[in-house]
Amino acid sequence: DFVKPLNHYVSANTADKSWNLVGNPYQCYYNNHLMNFTAPITLWNVNNKSYSAYSLVDDDVAIQPNEAFFVQCPDALNSISFPVAGKQFDNIITTQNPIAARKLGNATDRELVNLTITDGEHTDHTRIVYNDAASLMYEMECDASKFFSLDASIPQIYTLDADENQYAINERPLSNGIVPVGFVAPQAGEYTIALQDDVQDVYLVDHVENACVNLSQGSYTFSAK
Question: In angstroms, rounded to a whole number, what is the distance separating the alpha carbons of residues 40 and 32?
Fold first, then answer.
């Protein structure tokens, strides 16, 4: 089993603390569920020219041979390990990790809302996870900061909290049910925001057009400068 020590770096903002660049130590695919870790990981999406954050509980990711990724080290941890059981020949994930799921509570208590934005050519996404056991504040164990693409042509979508932290994965209690959403329009044109999941009654409020759309019933297309 390969163990990689992680470093802690001080920051006044929790979302900026203790980021490490690590990677799959093996020359084969690796099942993300088998890592001894629970915090999200952020990989570079070559095809979409943007960063993608993945939950080690909710997402199935076959990390490519020797592929690098960013990870935030929670205060209680000092390393990330890759048991040999996670090595595999292909990129198909079949083995889940129930231990990691139990660490974040009963799966039935967590509801995922995945949003995408597209200009018709490029697509970006963000996730809200409603979990009454989570906090409204940024938590390194389950939240993921938004890494913005270095390519100025890629639209971006993210959520925010009261401290203006920008999230790729925002795990939080339902609270009043309102989550601020931000986006970056790289150029003037039409953009479409859509809901990826079969979730009932998710309303998107456009404060510029004074429009309110139930994304559960269809996507929302708008013009932006």
Answer: 10
Q: For 110-123, write each residue's pLDDT tens digit.
A: 899 999 999 999 99
Query: Residue with structure tokens 């690590």?
Result: 22
pTM: 0.92
The better pLDDT of the pair 187, 29 is held by 29
Single-letter amino acid, residue 11: S
The answer on pLDDT for 125 being more than 90 is yes
150 Cβ contact partners less than 8 Å away, ≥ 6 residues apart: none
Q: Give the Cα separation of 202 and 108 in Å (integer).
A: 18
Residue whose token pair is 């093996």: 26
Pair of tokens at residue 32: 């993300």
CB burial string 63-74: b at 16+ within 10 A, e below: bbeeeebbbbbb
Q: Alpha-carbon distance 121 to 198, whole Å?
A: 24
- Asked whether the beta carbons of 131 and 173 are under 8 A apart, the reply is yes
Contact 123, 163 (CB under 8 A): no
Q: For residues 91 and 103, what is the distance between their CA atoms, to the nearest angstrom?
A: 25
Q: Which amino acid, one-letter code, is at 81?
A: S
d(CA 167, CA 159): 5
β-pairing, 166-172 vs 123-131, is parallel
| pLDDT bracket for residue 98 (50, 70, 90) | low
Question: Minimal CA–CA distance to 35: which of 103, 126, 129, 90?
Answer: 103
Dist. CA 191–CA 123, nearest whole Å:
10
